[in-house]
Amino acid sequence: MIFNLFSIPIYNCQLNFDNKKIEKYCYDLKEKDKGRVISNEGGWQSNNLEGYIPDLNELLIEILGRTNSFAKDIGLKTPMKLINGWVNINGYKDYNVEHNHPNSLLSAVYYVKTNDKSGDLAFKNPASDVMSENLMDATVNEYTEYNSCRKFLSPSNGMLYIFPAYINHHVYPNLSNDDRISIAVNFIKDNG
Q: pLDDT of 111-136, one tens digit each?
């Protein structure tokens, strides 16, 4: 009998928002905000989004609702509270290095603008430091959730991913001449 000892849940769904309007907001923000460097190599990452943002309000409310549902489904206490968020705009060959989101419980990323060459989102198996990728390559017949060091997801416009903030992840270089635009947010338990 096989059973899962530990599991890492990832939620995904396709949302239907006016991404052209959101894209315009992101580019307008880039004009006003010098940005920061945290996990981005090249590209632009905004400082934390602050206050009421009319162009993002409906999207952020939707993400919060889905995060609360996901939290309940995986046995976490709710409600969740959005504690910070930012915009990423990555041009040609820009990428995000491996990182996680400390001081958060759940994280989400919404893809505003992508294409098939924009670069995959990759999650790292927490046990990969003790798994040898070379050994795995030589011994694995088929990669599955039980023996993979990484899981690659190919985002599309309107795709939302929600995941535990502790899991290391990175984004491969954008090999397209079009920008990849995403909005990332973090959540904690709302204690009132």
A: 999 999 999 999 999 988 887 766 66
Query: Which tens digit of pLDDT belongs to each residue from 78-105?
Result: 999 999 999 999 999 999 999 999 999 9
Structure tokens of 151? 């899981």
pTM: 0.94
Residue in 137, 141, 165, 138 with CA at minimum distance from that of residue 150: 137
Residue 164 has pLDDT above 80, yes or no: yes
- Residue pair 152/178 in contact (Cβ under 8 Å)? The answer is no
Sheet with 106-113, strands from edge to edge, namely 11-14, 159-164, 106-113, 180-189, 80-90, 44-45
The closest of 68, 50, 153, 67 to 111, measured between CA atoms, is 153
3-state secondary structure 129-176: CCCCHHHHHHHCCCCCCCCCCEEEECCCCCEEEEEECCCCEEECCCCC
- Both tokens of 30, joined, read 């880039």
> Which residues, 6 or more positions from 27, have their beta carbon under 8 angstroms from its beta carbon?
89
Structural contact between residues 124 and 154, judged by C-beta atoms closer than 8 angstroms: no
User: Please, what's the largest Cα pairwise distance for the chain?
Assistant: 58
* 13 token code pair: 């769904």
